[in-house]
């Protein structure tokens, strides 16, 4: 140990010729003694050797000894887990380590996340599994590859940096006998260690990330991109671009929950299965007409579907003649809407009555939904429909052909939405509170008293009173409602049911 320290001191303090250093190294330092060196000293020593190698032009016995020593130094560094210290190293030290490029098998670096090594004869169920394993191995070992050949029976890749003298190659074939993908050729190990790959590793692509995050996304498909970035960073130590993670999340969702196209394709089978178990379930499909510029196919184009379960139809007969209707977005590739109609039983419990998936909320789609309700669910008269003031709903309920005009049906506004709209328009909290008090009054005199107070307070902003007076009283006040609402002022039931649907979708 003392001797090594002495040599190192000499090397660092004296101006020695290449021959002298070589001689010193060859004669006096053995591998056994190197083991005793601390990390910092080993780095210095390896650095010295590298310098010497660069200065020796001809390949001689001395040089080969030096290469051997260099290789040993590298092993020593690896043993000391120097990669863990890379973050603390200066940029120049890291650059030098990269230049060192020892000719040793890269799997001796240790650490990382892949607990396997690539070898000839290793077999995989399919090409995707093979590619994923090779990608994980490369990301873990800080190496990159380049595909040379990729067919249905062969996959051949080579190191991405042959210019650094790395001749690593891998070849895998599909074996008909075993029906497995097998690694049939694996040339020399990688010698192109690149510790500088911190971002944009070629093999850390969207497909690989999607496989890695699939279980996480399945457990919580609302997980943020930032959280996924952290997961990959912690696992592999690489930064990944936002767009790549976003793409990976989209793929993971498609794998976990099915593709958007697949989901629509499964809808007929799912509804048919429901009807086979519950024969009274009512389903009605609406097909989209072909446009002149579209290429016609044998299968019809989906437009809308209405469905009401048998149990709901039967239960609604015993409920109050009350329907709350609303629609919610279908988040995904196709921007459809899920339309919902619910009712309330005598105990105040929510009863889902009917559903529809439509292309959008419009007069046409709401009119179709209302007609479907009349056709498949109920023909009772005097049904009160509570909804927000969506223009499509307003027009649809006032269209006689949809069978919800008086006396067949009565439309009422959702109080919560009305107050919300009022607050958005005028941003006047005292008037909003007063309006809420007026709406829920059962007696006309109390309603008038509230509205007198409202008129007085809104004297500075007459448009508030104009806004309210423009809406017929029976649509938004309990005092003039004639009992149609049965005390239900809001369409909150639909809102709560929508939240339940979204939560359940997240849990699955
Ligand atoms: Zn390589």
Automatic annotation (TrEMBL):
Q: Where is the signal peptide?
A: 1-19
Specify the Transposase MuDR plant domain's residue ranges: 116-183
The MULE transposase domain, residue ranges: 323-421
Pfam name, any one: MULE
The organism's place on the tree of life at top rank: Eukaryota
Which chain regions cross the lipid bilayer? none
Q: Name the UniProt key words of this record, in alphabetical order.
A: Signal
PANTHER family listed in its UniProt record: MUDR FAMILY TRANSPOSASE, POLYPROTEIN, PUTATIVE-RELATED
Q: What is this protein called?
A: MULE transposase domain-containing protein
Organism whose genome encodes this protein: Stephania yunnanensis
